[in-house]
Amino acid sequence: MQALQAKTITEPLKADLSQRVQALKGQGIQPRMVTFLVESDDASAAYAKVKGRLAEKLGVTYDFISLKASTSTEELVQAIKEKNADSNVHGIMVEMPLPKHINEQEVIEAIAPEKDLDGLHPLNLGYLLKGTPKMIPNTALSALRLIEASGIDIAGKQAVVIGRSNIVGKPLSQLLLSRHATVTVCHSKTQDLTAITQAADILCVAIGKPHFIQADMVKEGAVVIDIGTNYDENGKVSGDVDFEALEGKEGWLTPVPGGVGPLTTTLIFDQLIHAIETSVIDE
């Protein structure tokens, strides 16, 4: 299988974003985003730093706010509302997962929809379902962009999405439907999964099980999007698809690392800048 590398999309997109940021600065607008991290796992902290480095390269102001593990739902919601009210802040993110004592849904709903860079506010998910998306969950959008990069005509194709989370599976299925694919969503209760995946022209996998998808589960010529991020005891990352087992097949496959992840990060800033540009036009 041919590798669908994120850099083929991210490099020109970053160059475009830098120009758009400079154009906004020329209008007196300094793009600014805020990321909240309630002390939790190392992966979330590392990801927050990755975003900070990209923000610096693009010329975006990046405020990283680290809160104690004991922070309550009410305290986090209040901190978010303060940023909602700040006209100099254009985008807000909260690193997930949150500690178990914090009400995740209440936190998501506290973010102003127009500043919701994760695209998880119920209003934004509703716009996506309606077919008029505004802020879109970035990982799902990244998967779609990589499918498009393969050159496949999505319309009329059999697309299978394994996983039904609000972050990936559900929004990705809606994005594929909007491109006129015939979409099947599979999950832990799905029976005869292999028979379903073998018929897929487009196979998207987000279940968090390393090397779960094997060669006999994949159709020749399919586009396979591996959205899994799994770490072994040595900290080595792998996806949900057995990359080496699929190497002899025809088709396209995103590597892990180097596929969905890097593009997801870049798309956060694309949505941030687009939201600012749109608001300037509306004014």
From TrEMBL:
Binding locations of NADP(+): 163-165, 229
Keywords of the record: Amino-acid biosynthesis, Histidine biosynthesis, Hydrolase, Methionine biosynthesis, Multifunctional enzyme, NADP, One-carbon metabolism, Oxidoreductase, Purine biosynthesis
Gene that this sequence comes from: folD
Protein name in UniProt: Bifunctional protein FolD
UniProt GO BP: L-histidine biosynthetic process; methionine biosynthetic process; purine nucleotide biosynthetic process; tetrahydrofolate interconversion
Residues of the Tetrahydrofolate dehydrogenase/cyclohydrolase catalytic domain: 4-118
Documented EC number(s): 1.5.1.5, 3.5.4.9
PANTHER family xref list: C-1-TETRAHYDROFOLATE SYNTHASE, CYTOPLASMIC, C-1-TETRAHYDROFOLATE SYNTHASE, CYTOPLASMIC-RELATED
